């Protein structure tokens, strides 16, 4: 597969991988089922790193083209048929460092920016709950009455993880807090503007700051688990 630079007509600073393929997929191929767990290693590097070009991210509350379903209780039959969008599943379609602004999200060229406006799951829902196995005390709630989109999910992940931690939330094991403090110091050295904001939720992830995909919660509910990797 050959990579080359491409340019978008948009004037924003969002980025995308550029690639030219002899085949093009239909919009329906953006979704895939989830019957297996994430691969054992989430940290393998993508070979032949591509060049990038700007793309536009939609507004988090951008309207979608289909009416959403109301949020389903875990006991309803719809829960077993939810299909996650491919941009939110494990794979090389999306590169998202959660410490950085959404302007730095990178997509492959065969994943057009319009995919960010598509529903996060099918059938569409107005409410998603995302849990963090590494940080069980915190969860991410995504709401869009017109239907939760991929961009809604990414925006809320970024917002929640970059929230400053309150003093009472630091009452954890000394080992966990020390690791978070190490991450905070490293982050502040890289960007001194970060120091006044103190420790953030993302610091408790340590070096695993790359979004590695969502997976269905293991308790059988309609919630999702988010996974992170040290690199993608």
If you had to describe this structure to a student in words, what would you say it looks like?
The chain contains 2 helices and 11 strands. The strands form 3 sheets. It has a 4-stranded mixed β-sheet with strand order 3-1-6-5, with no helix packed on it. The chain has a 4-stranded mixed β-sheet with strand order 9-8-11-10, covered by helices on one side. By secondary structure, the chain is of the alpha+beta class. Residues 1-16, 18-29, 32-46 and 63-78 have low confidence and may be disordered. It has helices at residues 150-161, 174-190; strands at 14-17, 31-32, 52-55, 83-85, 94-95, 106-107, 121-122, 127-131, 139-143, 210-216, 224-229. The radius of gyration is 18 Å and the shape is globular.
Give the C-alpha Rg.
18 Å
Proportion of residues in β-strands: 15-25%
Strand order of the largest sheet: 3-1-6-5
- String of helices and strands: EEEEEEEEEHHEE
Mean pLDDT: 75
N- to C-terminal separation? 18 Å
Low-confidence stretches: 1-16, 18-29, 32-46, 63-78
Given the C-alpha coordinates, what overall shape results?
A: globular
Number of strands: 11
Residue share in helices?
10-25%
Largest sheet: 4 strands, mixed
Topology:
Blueprint (H helix, E strand, L loop, with lengths): L13 E4 L13 E2 L19 E4 L27 E3 L8 E2 L10 E2 L13 E2 L4 E5 L7 E5 L6 H12 L12 H17 L19 E7 L7 E6 L3
Structural descriptors:
232 residues; alpha+beta; four-stranded mixed sheet; globular
Short note summarizing the structure:
This protein has 232 residues and is of the alpha+beta class. It has helices at 150-161, 174-190; strands at residues 14-17, 31-32, 52-55, 83-85, 94-95, 106-107, 121-122, 127-131, 139-143, 210-216, 224-229. The strands form three sheets. The chain has a four-stranded mixed sheet, with no helix packed on it. A four-stranded mixed sheet has the order 9-8-11-10, covered by helices on one side.
């Amino acid at each position: 597969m050959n990579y080359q630079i491409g340019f978008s007509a948009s004037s924003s600073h969002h980025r995308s991988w550029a690639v030219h393929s002899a085949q093009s997929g239909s919009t329906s191929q953006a979704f895939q089922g989830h019957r297996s767990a994430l691969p054992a290693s989430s940290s393998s590097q993508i070979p032949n790193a591509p060049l990038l070009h700007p793309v536009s991210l939609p507004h988090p509350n951008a309207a979608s083209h289909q009416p959403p379903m109301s949020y389903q209780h875990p006991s309803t039959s719809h829960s077993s048929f939810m299909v996650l969008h491919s941009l939110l599943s494990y794979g090389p379609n999306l590169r998202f460092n959660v410490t950085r602004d959404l302007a730095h999200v990178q997509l492959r060229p065969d994943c057009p920016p319009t995919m960010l406006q598509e529903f996060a799951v099918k059938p569409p829902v107005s409410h998603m709950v995302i849990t963090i196995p590494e940080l069980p005390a915190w969860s991410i709630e995504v709401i869009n009455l017109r239907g939760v989109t991929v961009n809604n999910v990414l925006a809320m992940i970024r917002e929640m993880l970059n929230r400053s931690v309150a003093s009472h939330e630091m009452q954890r094991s000394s080992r966990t807090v020390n690791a978070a403090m190490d991450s905070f110091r490293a982050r502040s050295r890289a960007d001194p503007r970060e120091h006044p904001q103190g420790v953030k939720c993302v610091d408790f992830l340590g070096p695993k700051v790359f979004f590695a995909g969502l997976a269905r919660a293991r308790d059988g509910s309609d919630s999702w688990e988010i996974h992170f990797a040290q690199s993608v």
